Amino acid sequence: MARSALIVSLALWMVVIVLAAMPVQAGSETVLWSFKSGDWGYPLGQLLRESNSLFGTGVGQSPGYGQVFELTQSGGTWTESQPLKFNNVDGALPAAGLIQDSTGALYGTTQSGDAYGDGNVFQLKYSGGAWSEKTIWAFGGSGDGAGPACDLIMDGSGALYGTTYGGGASSAGTVFQLSQSGGTWTENILYSFAGGSDATNPYSGLLMDSSGSLYGTTYNGGTNGVGAVYELSESGGVWTEQVLHSFGGGSDGLNPNGGLVMDKKGALYGTAKYGGKHKFGIVFQLNKSGGTWNENILYNFGGADGAGPYARLLRSGSTTFYGTTVDGGANNEGAVFVLFKSGGVWGEAVVYSFGGSSGDGTYPFSALIKDSSGNLYGTTENGGAHGYGTVYEVVP
Fold it and tell me: Both ends of the chain: CA-CA distance in Å?
């Protein structure tokens, strides 16, 4: 055998060995609920699981303004109710998920509507067999943020943190804090994005580390104008922003929508919907070394293995992440994927491809949640038995 042929043969054997070490995933999916016609449906945000219920939001069908829904399981059957149907006066178009405080109250955001037409943060409380809703902050006042599309987070004191896509001092978005005293909520704008080479227009919510610093992504801005990762840190009551990474397009990602997750060593992980080697999006990692953050592209999506990773990743152990892509997969209607590290190499496998059968969901925009058995839950914006989206469960 010629030397060149032997080298090629050995290289191919090495590829086979590496691939054999990587787990092959084949998950099964169950559609738990298909939204019907009317002014509800089209869910976009991450689900919240509480006991036997799943809570979520949908932007709704015209002429509606969206809703909060609850799916309750009893005897293996799921039923749907609507704790809240928005009417524009109390907000409209909720695109993000919900969080819950220690009393069971739910909190979320709407992108538009309410007093100034620029969205709100709302609270839902259950008492006496009924849900009641209250706007705790209406966006759009002078110098305020506008158009929140983010998941909220809550600190130990009960304060809420989030982002707005627009508004602020430069109309480029804000990071805000809402705190309560004596039943009254007060907003503190922690940072107004400046536009230009600054991070600009955040869709995603925030990540808070153990020191209280905040991290997020922006869809636009940065050095190249196609998105950035930023950090906000507080000292002496003053918040300071630092752009950790500016996306470059091309082989790098661009226009990240989803939030970030952090591992035990402080590395950040996220997705960018576009860009990368094949232009179908990437999964990236940011590591800090000597005060400098460096990007490592962990995976480039290629289409059949998923395309358009939109949402935040779900971390499962130290070297495994689950996520969704809006497009791609076997039927080009979205996928659930797993990203894993084996032998020092990152690999990806499609757990489930949407749209392969009648009545299946299509286009999963939401991040995943996981139950104690390791089963995954999410939503699709479209598809289902009636075409208005689904809530699904995937067993990896």
Answer: 44
Q: How many CA atoms lie within 13 A of 61 on its CB side?
A: 13
Model pTM greater than 0.85? yes
Task: For 125-154, write each residue's pLDDT tens digit.
Answer: 999 999 999 999 999 999 999 999 999 999
Please tell me the distance from the alpha carbon of residue 355 to that of residue 306, in angstroms, as a whole number: 13
Q: Output the DSSP codes for 154-221.
A: E-TTS-EEEEESEETTTTS-EEEEEEEETTEEEEEEEEE--STTSEE---S--EE-TTS-EEEEESEE
51 Cβ contact partners less than 8 Å away, ≥ 6 residues apart: none
User: 230-275 pLDDT, tens per residue?
Assistant: 999 999 999 999 999 999 999 999 999 999 999 999 999 999 999 9
Average pLDDT over residues 282-305: 96
Tokens encoding 253: 């990602």
C-alpha angle 180-219-59 in degrees, rounded to nearest 5? 65
Q: Alpha-carbon distance 188 to 200, whole Å?
A: 19
Q: Are 107 and 91 in contact (CB under 8 A)?
A: no
Would residue 63 be called left, alpha or beta, if left means φ above 0 and alpha means ψ between -120 and 50 degrees? alpha
Q: Which amino acid is at 256?
A: P
Q: In what helix (H) or strand (E) does residue 12 lie, and over which residues does it extend?
A: helix 3-21
pLDDT of residue 48: 98
Burial class (CB in 10 A: 0-12, 13-18, 19+), 239: middle
Residue 199, C-beta contacts closer than 8 angstroms, at least 6 positions apart: 193, 217, 218, 221, 222, 227, 228, 229, 230, 241, 243
